[in-house]
């Protein structure tokens, strides 16, 4: 039996929705005031980028733990280009992995990123179907 996710997204009125998650936590989606909303929720396209970074980030965090690597701080910057024509979508995405620490094992950290990008991250694979991906890794030896 294939694993499936079932999400319920309920309209709360105006431009606001509440969406469930298998974690049991809900999130609010809303349009910007420019688009008739109140800006009191997350934007759908940006959520896709959070999903992408979160998916890959979980892979990398798991590998950091498995490889017993020393990392003080780690963040992912996701910069996406939106097409001009409707329906607007991301046609190019740059994903920057930033590692901070005194004793960074650059080779192993790069391996962790590569494993996520090439093998483990399903959201990355979905994005690959419609966008050109550029992956960059930065090591900040604080």
UniProtKB/TrEMBL annotation:
<protein>
    <recommendedName>
        <fullName>Redox protein</fullName>
    </recommendedName>
</protein>
<dbReference type="Pfam" id="PF02566">
    <property type="entry name" value="OsmC"/>
</dbReference>
<dbReference type="InterPro" id="IPR003718">
    <property type="entry name" value="OsmC/Ohr_fam"/>
</dbReference>
<dbReference type="InterPro" id="IPR036102">
    <property type="entry name" value="OsmC/Ohrsf"/>
</dbReference>
<dbReference type="InterPro" id="IPR015946">
    <property type="entry name" value="KH_dom-like_a/b"/>
</dbReference>
């Amino acid at each position: 039996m294939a694993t499936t996710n079932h999400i319920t997204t309920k309209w709360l009125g105006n431009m606001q929705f509440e969406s469930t998650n298998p974690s049991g936590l809900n999130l609010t989606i809303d349009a910007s005031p420019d688009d008739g909303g109140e800006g009191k929720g997350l934007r759908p396209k940006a959520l896709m980028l959070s999903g992408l970074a979160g998916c890959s980030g979980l892979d990398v965090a798991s590998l950091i733990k498995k490889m017993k690597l020393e990392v003080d701080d780690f963040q992912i910057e996701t910069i996406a280009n939106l097409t001009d024509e409707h329906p607007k979508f991301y046609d190019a995405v740059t994903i920057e992995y930033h590692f901070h620490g005194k004793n960074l094992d650059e080779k192993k950290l790069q391996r962790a990123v590569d494993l996520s990008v090439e093998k483990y991250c399903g959201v990355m694979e979905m994005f690959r179907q419609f966008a050109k991906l550029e992956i960059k890794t930065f090591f900040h030896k604080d």
